[in-house]
Fold:
Amino acid sequence: MKAGLFLTGLTLAASASAHIRHGHRHEHKKRGDNVVNHTEVSYVTATAPDVVVYVDSNGKPISTGPPAGAAPPAYHAPAEQPKAPAAPAHTPPKDTPKAPAAPAHSAPSGGSSSGSGRGITYSPYNADHTCKSAEDVKRDLSKLTGYDLIRLYGSDCNQVANVLAACNAKLFLGVFDIKNLQTEASTLIKQAKGSWDRVDTISIGNELVNSGGASVDEVVAAINTARGIFKAAGYSGNIVTVDTFVAIIANPGLCQASDYAAANCHAFFDGGKTAEQAGDFVKDQAQRVANACGGKRVVITETGWPSQGSPNGSAVPSKENQAAAISSLKSKFDKDMFLFTAYNDMWKVDTAATFGCEKYWGIM
Structure:
């Protein structure tokens, strides 16, 4: 989901009073040979020589996400891109259902395209890490109303085909692993079955620069390669890469290579904002991204508030605060915003570094 921007190659400033970027756990499933592997990587920055450490004005560490305060300081791209942290060993899930063939394209009621111009993210995984069935996906999406777009992060679990069949909404699709670009793109193309009129955007990677999973040059190269692959398959829509607003501001090459700037932004991780201030905070950061990207269109591809977990400064997880944050966000964005996320992700792993809230961002 979200992860802290690693700043390396710079000397720790003794007089610095800014913000530390703690790791917010980013998890995703990868599927192969009918087995879902659960990848979870926790990114944590620490005080050490040759590292810029950010804290707030009280010396308190700040979590991954936006800079604290109304006027966050400028961020500078690192001299060298950090190496991707090693992921823990995968634990094979219980019997994972075989991906069913894509059903015929007749869309039921869920995710009506007559919604408000906003989107919502969705992940088709059970708590035991197995794939949700086509019927499960259909049931989930039938409960979502008022969203024009649904964002998916990959093509495992036959999710592209299942979601296309289960709703009327347009899709924001994703290639998750750019090191496996050709295979993932081929899988996505196969599941889409030429229904490109239903696809608004394809993302090449999610928060790869922010997490240290890839360099800017590697992401840009992957975007350019993907353009050729999807064009050959008949797709002529938007292609972007998604990263945190912090990473995009520091590395505008990411938005320059994309058809628009696609930024994840969560007020909760600022630590200095209440739920009622979420909309203003995210709107301000969207403007900062637009400024860094030369006035390019900005889409907030993740934003929300957890309903459970530990407080992060002024940001307190609760059902009431989640509702207040979503109301605030909707008051500032009538389009170009994806709420994170449709349902709680009980397959994820919570730690103190994620404030115990990683599972609990679901709105439904």
